Amino acid sequence: MASNNKVFEYAVIRIVPIVEREEFINVGVVLLCKELDYISAKIELNTNKILAMCPQSNIDSIQANLTAFENIAAGLTTGGPIAEYIPVERFRWLTATRSTIVQCSKIHPGFCTNPELKLNQLFSDYVELKEM
Fold first, then answer.
1. What's the rounded Cα separation, in Å, for the pair 63 and 45?
2. CB of 77 within 8 A of CB of 49?
3. How far lies 36's CA from each of 31, 87, 116, in Å?
4. Residue 132: inside a domain, yes or no?
5. Rounded to an integer, what distance in angstroms lies between the CA atom of residue 67 and that of residue 4?
6. b/e string for 5-33 if b means 16 or more Cβ within 10 A?
7. Tell me, what DSSP letter sits at residue 34?
8. Run of H or E residues at 64
9. What tens digit of pLDDT does each residue of 98-113 get?
10. Residues 88, 74, 121, 131: is their CA dihedral positive or negative?
């Protein structure tokens, strides 16, 4: 019996308001399924959490960076030249280690049958606020 499972990779997208302190808030997930030529990012900025951690944060600048991240993942022309790369190259560029306000976790692998459903599940698990 053949499996419909496909290998995927994902990273959690984080905002690090004060890079030197290395404290972060999860704001999204980017997921790649190379076999299906699929890449997508789901992002939601919680400005209250950011401002609670760092009141001097420039929310407009952070949102602009996150929008660029989404545009690159989606391969939109507004994402600039990186958005023209093939999905796996865009994913590697987006998840590369950097010391900026927008950072990604280490890359994690897994198996799924539907990358969009998996992206939504990961987003729910790592980003959305849950009632206690």
1. 7
2. no
3. 12, 10, 11
4. no
5. 32
6. ebebbbbbbbbbbeeeeeebbbbbbbbbb
7. G
8. helix 59-74
9. 888 999 999 999 999 9
10. positive
Burial of 113 (0-12, 13-18, 19+ CB in 10 A): exposed
Quote the distance between the C-alpha of residue 25 and its chain's center.
12
What is the identity of the amino acid at 12?
V
Q: What's the total number of domains in the chain?
A: 1
Q: Over the stretch 24-66, which tens digit does the pLDDT of each residue have?
A: 999 999 999 999 999 999 999 999 999 999 999 999 999 999 9
- Write the CB contacts of 48 (distance below 8 Å, at least 6 apart in sequence): none
- Whether residue 1 is contained in a domain is answered as no
Q: Does residue 23 fall inside a structural domain?
A: yes
Domain limits for position 23: 6-126
Q: Is 29 helix (H, G, I), strand (E, B) or coil?
A: strand
Residue 42's closest CA among 116, 130, 110? 116
- Answer whether residue 131 is part of any domain: no
* pTM summary value: 0.92
